[in-house]
Design goal:
α5 runs antiparallel to α6. This protein has 361 residues and is α/β, with parallel strands linked by helices. A six-stranded parallel β-sheet has the order 1-8-5-4-2-3, sandwiched between helices. The longest helix is centred in the middle third of the chain and has 23 residues.
């Protein structure tokens, strides 16, 4: 066994019902005295409660999906103008992503308080969209110094969004199994992340106000993000970044729809990863376990339900092909991509391979 693994330096606090107190303690620990709070207008009230009593110099609510460069530039300028020394992000992946965009150029530390299962708070990956193209990278400056996980903050998240967000987290686990830098530690973390999410998401769907399922989902989300950040972005995330950037598709739902198609495509060429995923689901095969989970939570099934057109599915082929990561378990051709995107567009069973006639139905 020969591999190299680098751990990320980050403090993580799990404490249901204690977000405000734990955030205050983390702000004091970080020695901050001029806090910029980043939260969307929809979560302004929640952000105010979490940041009560803090030395807030600016509240920023211009949060846009996929972090357009122009939005990032305005937030960066505001942070500098107000002399912020800490970024407190309260929200989902778009909110955390904006905080990362500010940190990328300013070096300001981030304290993240997630309200979804996006997982961005536990990675050093940033993303910015400019002229319909989403660029991503990794930089230690964007990794939040501290994360406060409070499951009660996810209770207002409606079940359909909780499911899509949780499946986005699960996609981090699956992609980590064959990411370009994957090692045995990544696979161990990803396997436990799949187990926790597979247990948590049905519990969230069955009892939306209960904390046990949401705590399991947050735990699985954290593990998924750590594994993904180390292993690197695989085929699934490359596809979703292309679709999100070009067509402004909703992030979580896009991941939820595309995941089974990439798993069905890659799994036969990655038997060890496939067996690990299957075991984490407690199923005979990886795709069987994923599909069983998806049925139990009424997961999103078709990209056409979220604004992608049939023509879009075809025009995205070359952009996806250009983004295929090195070391994918199997070679990827333009026809493979076209077939996969068409299947995801119409919501086909990922276990079937459709011919051209079927793909146009």
């Amino acid at each position: 066994m020969r591999f190299e693994h680098e751990n990320l330096t980050q403090r993580v606090v799990f404490a249901s019902g204690e977000a405000a107190a734990r955030v205050r303690a983390e702000v004091e620990r970080l020695g901050a005295s001029r806090v910029m709070v980043i939260a969307s207008a929809a979560e302004a009230g929640l952000a105010e409660a979490v940041s009560a009593g803090l030395p807030v110099v600016l509240r920023w609510d211009e949060v846009v999906m996929h972090v357009p460069v122009e939005v990032a530039e305005r937030a960066r300028a505001a942070a500098a103008a107000h002399g912020a020394d800490l970024l407190l992000s309260v929200g989902g992946g778009s909110t955390t992503g904006l905080a990362k965009a500010v940190a990328l150029t300013s070096g300001l530390p981030i304290l993240a308080v997630p309200t979804t299962y996006a997982g961005s708070e536990a990675t050093s990956v940033w993303g910015l969209t400019e002229r319909a193209r989403k660029a991503t990278g990794a930089d230690a400056r964007v990794l939040p110094r501290s994360v406060v996980y409070d499951a009660t903050l996810t209770v207002p998240l409606p079940v359909p969004m909780s499911v899509a967000s949780g499946l986005n987290a699960l996609a981090h686990c699956v992609d980590a199994m064959w990411g370009p830098r994957v090692d045995p530690i990544d696979r161990a973390l990803a396997g436990e992340g799949i187990r926790a999410l597979a247990a948590g998401l049905p519990a969230v769907a069955a009892d939306p106000s209960g904390l046990e399922g949401r705590e399991q989902a947050l735990y699985g989300t954290y593990l998924s993000a750590v594994a993904f950040s180390s292993a690197g972005s695989g085929l699934h995330h490359k596809i979703c970044h292309v679709l999100g950037g070009r067509y402004d598709l909703p992030h979580a739902q896009t991941h939820a729809v595309v995941l089974p198609h990439v798993l069905a495509f890659n799994a036969p060429a990655a038997p060890e990863a496939e067996q690990r995923i299957a075991a984490a689901f407690g199923a005979d095969s990886a795709i069987e376990g994923l599909q069983r989970l998806r049925r139990s939570v009424d997961a999103p099934t078709a990209l056409r339900d979220y604004g992608l057109t049939e023509t879009d599915a075809d025009t995205a082929v070359q952009a996806v092909l250009d983004a295929v990561p090195e070391g994918n378990p199997r070679p990827v051709t333009a026809e493979d991509v076209r077939r996969l995107l068409r299947a995801a567009w119409r919501g086909a069973d990922p276990r079937t391979t459709s011919d051209e006639k079927e793909s146009r139905r």
